[in-house]
Queue: 4 jobs
Job 1
Amino acid sequence: MSDHSVLHVKGRVLAGPDDVRDGLWVVGGRISYDRPVGARDVRTVEGWALPGLVDAHCHVGLGAHGPVDADVAEKQALTDREAGALLIRDAGSPSDTRWVDDREDLPKIIRAGRHIARTRRYIRGYAHEIEPADLVAYVGREARRGDGWVKLVGDWIDREVGDLAPSWPREAAEAAIAEAHRLGARVTAHCFAESSLRDLVESGIDCVEHATGLTDELIPLFASRGVAIVPTLVNIATFPDLAAGGESKFPRWSAHMRRLHARRYDTVRSAHDAGIPVFVGTDAGGTLPHGLVAAEVAELVTAGIPPLAALSATTWGAREWLGRPGLVEGAPADLVVYESDPRADVRVLAAPRRVVLNGAVVS
Ligand SMILES: [Zn+2]
């Protein structure tokens, strides 16, 4: 893909929230802000360029019933690519998708290994289902398999209680997070409820997925420790359906899910206003389709996050958080070009004009 032809991205390049430039060049698959000397065979794309979008909670290689074949995983990754999502933090996958790393035409993936859940306390077929005594060992194993992240399931319905309940005793979570950090990996956890959050944050967790249970009491704790959240609002929108499905067997759980759903926008806006880093994640894979990154950005704006901050949550800010470059000199040319200024209306993200990956125009 990275051949010797030159691509000229004409128009406005949004290299940072306060860094707008006049065009860039792609030479040998990499970004240059200097017009290459003697460039021939120049292809041009024109519009408003953003760094390739980040979907910070996505599952490649996961389907409704667990692992899927490589050809299905490839289709998932291509759907994300079409939507402009060129950097994925895979928040847990039972499939080995390492082969994607050799494909210059597929989005880059930062893996968290396979989900680690308590026995019978998660969607069947997704996770390692274990007991607390084995948590440190499994976290160590997934930290070595992944790309700097480990994914825990922090809470789930406890059928005996009939409601959401924490999956791990405090001591087990503490030891597991310490082990991940010792191995250089960050830890994130799926949490819907209020009750799992304090222990995980005080144990040193780096990020919480969904985080619907954030309260006014917990928000300052997250903010002071710099714990990020990935709200996945396009997923939270399904809570009323889930609640309806579980109503007859688990009425308490259903009511709880409805309450979390009802206050979801207030929760996310309060978190952002308090200074908690908020990032874009769709939770694609499993039950939700891939390619919803623009919808999630729009949801953050609906929740009351200013458009520039919502854009940063899938571009500049998200890339910095994940340690990957944006539109900087010499970086791989992963970018998306739009017809109009996304800062004026983030809904333009739903219709990329051109997607450029590793310097190649892929759509
Ligand atoms: Zn997920």
Job 2
Amino acid sequence: MSQEIYAAEPAATRREASEAESSRASRGWWNRNADEYQSDHGAFLGDDRFVWGPEGLDEAEAGLLGSAASLRGLDVLEIGAGAAQCSRWLAAQGARPVALDLSHRQLQHALRIGGSDVPAVRLVEADAGMLPFRDGSFDLACSAYGAVPFVADPVQVFREVHRVLRPGGRWVFSVTHPVRWAFPDEPGPEGLSVAASYFDRTPYVEQDERGDAVYVEHHRTLGDRVRDVVAGGFRLVDLVEPEWPAWNHQEWGGWSPLRGSLIPGTAIFVCERA
Ligand SMILES: C[S@@+](CC[C@H](N)C(=O)[O-])C[C@H]1O[C@@H](n2cnc3c(N)ncnc32)[C@H](O)[C@@H]1O
């Protein structure tokens, strides 16, 4: 969940949020919070590593996109790229990545970190629900916690990814593990007791004094996510639930070594374009 401190603290609630309201809230929230996000998590993410989530699973060891050697020369789209750390790793493997994000400020951090390497990674400011690319432009698409948890209509995103991928292309994305929806978003023992229904899909919304959403997260159950993947035109190849490794002592919001040893924190969907 969000960690932003507001002048007047936004009120957290559960209510419906349309695609347009969710997109508006995400753009605003990530523009306002990109500096804090990169300052809090930039060291863990590394400037040019590809980390799938707070557990620290690294694509260099996981190989979910294929072997590092097989990435050479491929056109890769990263969705919700933030400061494009993953894309820089992809470029280092010889791929041709495009890092897309709807937050201008996140992409400015990509420029800051990338420095003279930036030409190796093309940056695009756009919404994942309407990708500004021709059909069949990419061999691979990926996303580490980018966009998918924040959109009201993930099938629309998947259809767009399907459209811009070439036949047989992989689409690999990580999201908050759906099981966590039932637990308070706390790293300590208070985050270990079920407090809400796993089956309640009502979005988590933080709203300002006028009632406008300033942060939105959408919940899908594991079954919903599988059905969404299929509805988007993909075949599910694997569902990876990274375990918390012994070396990782770092908390990230509600993700912690304590909870990580007991419940899954991240779900990574490995899909192939049908
Ligand atoms: C949790 S951050 C992850 C960023 C990066 N992948 C990382 O691991 O640091 C989520 C990112 O998704 C972006 N995002 C949220 N909704 C989006 C949308 N509808 N379209 C494109 N990007 C979106 C945000 O701006 C933010 O940069």
Job 3
Amino acid sequence: MKAIVVTDQAAGTAGVKLVERPEPQAAINDVVVQIHASGFTGDELSWPSTWTDRVGRDRTPSIPGHELAGMVTALGYGTTGLSVGQRVFGLTDWYRDGTLAEYVAVEARNLAPLPGDVDFTEGAALVMPGLTAWQGLFEHGRLQAGQSVLVHGAAGVVGSMATQLAREAGAYVIGTGRAAGRQTALEFGAQEFVDLDNDSLEDVGGVDLVFDVLGGDIAKRSAGLIRAGGTLVTITGPTGARPTDGLTVDFVVVPDRTQLSEIVRRLRDGRVRTNIGKVATLDDAVAAFNPTERVKGKTIIRVRP
Ligand SMILES: NC(=O)c1ccc[n+]([C@@H]2O[C@H](COP(=O)([O-])OP(=O)(O)OC[C@H]3O[C@@H](n4cnc5c(N)ncnc54)[C@H](OP(=O)(O)O)[C@@H]3O)[C@@H](O)[C@H]2O)c1
């Protein structure tokens, strides 16, 4: 099969290559999925899981990309809950070969059924932002209707989904970002927007939850805005930011079938939409991951036409 591989951590996205690889086999509780659309986050190339297995052994050349939408083609020993020919979408294990390929072997529990009226490109684009936003807002952030949430990077891939899900849950959403992101953030449902280059973050006053995708000094300053009992949720790695009377949760997204089904239901109802910036073929993926101009929104690789 065709697959994108990486071998050289220092090279970043310039080191991705399109090669031929053997098709994967389904292990216990796995399915093999014929991939129709795949998503990739550039930061994966800095994560240890792209380069080693769980005990630290080199696993290069490895196939990056962990978001998929496709069709089940084989079941492993003992696998239940999915069937051959079923449309699925989901998030694969960080430590295994990923989804920038024609086929992937993945644990069935990482996947959810993809309804027949949802395009594979849309399905793949929902996975990472949908699960990350859901887990940050509702699991870790315990967001309730009527509460206020400050969503950093609200025009970005994860931030735009967090904005929509928070609004839909009845929260008051203040988005942030650069000036150029204002209109996009408002269109995704933010009720206010703070331009982090020109407005004062401190003027926001108190919020119940901060959903942080930026880290650094912005995360630290945001901690001071959190009301007693509130939470700072961050997805950029530990920031050292702590609210005086509240929680900080730094987390990495995990697969969840139930949450994927909730999120895709909202897509079908028109309650959320994806934030896709570019769609490229697998043959063009190397160029798509090394764009000459900044692409805003998610890049999706359409593996099968
Ligand atoms: N922990 C996890 O499970 C997890 C899951 C998914 C993603 N992530 C991480 O989350 C981060 C965000 O991912 P994403 O896909 O949402 O990225 P993205 O689409 O680039 O979104 C980031 C947004 O923030 C804006 N922004 C960036 N730096 C800014 C600054 N200094 N001031 C104001 N606005 C700024 C960007 O504007 P411009 O486009 O104008 O730069 C963009 O609108 C990445 O680091 C990613 O690796 C973590």
Job 4
Amino acid sequence: MTQPSRPQDGRAALASFVTNRLGRTQARPAPAETKAPPANESAQDFEKLTGYRELRLQRSAADLIGLGNPFFRVHETRAGAQTRIGGEAFSNYSSYDYLGLNGHPAVSGAARKAIEAFGTSASASRIVAGERPGHLKLERALAAHYGTDGCVIMVSGHATNVTAIGAILEAPDVIFHDALIHNSVVTGAQLSGAQRRSFAHNDPAALEKLLEATRHEHRRALIVIEGLYSMDGDAPDLAAFVELKRRYDCWLMVDDAHGLGVLGRTGAGLHEHCGVDASDVDIWMGTLSKTLSSCGGYICGPSALIEYLKCTAGGFVYSVGMSPPLAAAAEAALSVMQAEPERVERLRRNGNQFLALAKKHGLNTGSSLGLAVIPIIVGDSLKAVTLSDRLFKRGINVQPIIHPAVPERSSRLRFFMTSEHTPEQIAQTVTTVAEELSALETGATLIEQLMARRGA
Ligand SMILES: Cc1ncc(COP(=O)(O)O)c(C=O)c1O
């Protein structure tokens, strides 16, 4: 086993231990070895991949101080507000099932019916293998939700952003995006060849400065923001972004992956939350994997855009059509969401309760609105990983988010709330978090504990 020689080495290694791979895109460091290897060595060894050795070192450092790997845990049941891992019950805060629709009888029933009628696969691209009625039904339902001309669904939320942005923009164009935008948007921008400019999180004034200085240098411009931000649980001032996109002649795209089912009285999304007409946004993007308890992504917008993407976006044209049961499940989940706004209300009550209790205990919840995503910022990677580990030992499953997914000083635990958590469960969780954090902060420092365990 590779062992760090000094506690500081262990700390540095741990600081980059758990990388949330759905988080921000970091520029890849230039490969250390650019020359051909000596004749007796092969570069074609996967263990020589840039970063692989570092990954092993990080794991070894975590093993050294007895921290379990918080990722890739096998859940033995449908993971919602509760879960089972290793035969034990946990309160679960690592599920996107915001409205408790995964496993809902209407949703599972729709998926079963679709399997009976169409099997499990759409077999090939819809252009080649043709449509299934469920594709069109889901696209019509999503277009109706946003009041757009049309919609296109794709097999992955991540791929939807990559391929749609990659298809819409070209080299003479520019994309302006929030500094905390999802990796898939950045990757799509890179694919497109357009200039990429990021502005400070949730800061329309910062965007305005950028627009004023650079908009004239480019042909087309796309502004991309999210609905509910997945790391911080806050939301943008949509009206301010609409005003800017009009004034500077840009398209505005909202990735409402975490806003659908969460934001607004009925969970309609960011537009309902902000009291803005959905038609003021040019492109509505979302995923089926969160509130809609399925898998895939969608773009809703004007008919020319939808027709264009269906005929030119590589991630649609050259990729299989959505599996019929997944399309049916998402459509059924959207119907339940729209018919039962009390689920959205329960989620809001739960999030609000968690936030209020956390604040009462003096925990740092950043800018979270207290809805589906609530961070507890602890300010140090090692503390975040250790706190997550200690909570796991007390029956709470919650993920640490550390550098480079977030800046080191804002390392955190991220709690995903659902409408199905109970008030008692939430109260018990927040009290336990406060106890364990206080024990961590008042006990021996983590570095001291690390040194003691190594007999230093
Ligand atoms: C804001 C945002 N956009 C896109 C995606 C990608 O969606 P999916 O995981 O469904 O592929 C995610 C995933 O977490 C996300 O948070």
